[in-house]
Amino acid sequence: MHGEGDFEGSLGRGVSGSIPPAFGVVYGASESLSEAIFGGGSEAGVRVGGTDTNEVVVTRRGLFVTGTDTNVGKTVVSAALFHRYRSEVSLCYWKPVQTGIEQDDDTATVRALGECTDGEIFDQGVRLPRPVSPHLAARWAGRRITVAALLALWESAPVSVRWIVEGAGGVLVPLNEGELMVDLMRALHLPALIVARSTLGTINHTLLTVEALRYRAIPIAGVVMVGPPNPENRRAIEEYGGVPVLGEMPWFEPLTPEGLRTWAQAGLDPDGRLREGWA
Ligand SMILES: Nc1ncnc2c1ncn2[C@@H]1O[C@H](COP(=O)(O)OP(=O)(O)OP(=O)(O)O)[C@@H](O)[C@H]1O
Ligand SMILES: [Mg+2]
Question: Which of 19, 61, 268, 270 could pair with 264 in a Cys bridge, judged by C-beta atoms 3.0 to 4.6 Å apart?
């Protein structure tokens, strides 16, 4: 048995110990989801509530872009968010863990597709060769990824922007022998935006992701579906998952910053659900 406030990883300590009991107050009645994402005032940092020991954590605003799988479109959606919202709020992108850096550099992709300035990119983090799961890429490189080290890195990042943090793979991807990507999400205190495919299989994958996030009390801002529009899959995700679908991103051929911008400005969160409350 360990202390109720422990932030142990999701593995190896048993299920009950993996959920910090104080988490229920993080985005409680006094703070709406939109305030958690974009803030309600000039101050971007937010006090997210006390723990058992009355410790108060100052964190940052934004979104954690996760997905139902690797290669599902998280990076492209992250770039689209710049086109959609940069005219209203200062945004900054962070990829904490990148594997397969020889061929996949999501930071460079977002910079190009999102037409980002240097100030819109926080180019720090774990960068590993080999396009495999983070825990394995780290082991093969003789390194160890930890949530604590990533948090320490983020301490040096600006607080006065709204963050677009991109995961690697999906929510239960291992970082090390005891911590998962979802443990990093929890530690960053950012609501999740789930990127999902639009095609067959997505209902199950998306609902599993929703369930894993809810189980850990991580707020869900919504889902963006990628691929040919599929109204029945959209409806099923919204109804069974109880989450809003904030956009259906088509498959671009070719994929260009211009095409992405045109779609994002018209089709990504058209009702402004993500930004309500930031004024
Ligand atoms: N809407 C789209 N139109 C055209 N190509 C797309 C689209 N969305 C994604 N792609 C392509 O699909 C591939 C995977 O997309 P992306 O890199 O965004 O996935 P990811 O979820 O970020 O993957 P990872 O887990 O590696 O970070 C890329 O080659 C990307 O260019
Ligand atoms: Mg990516």
Answer: 268
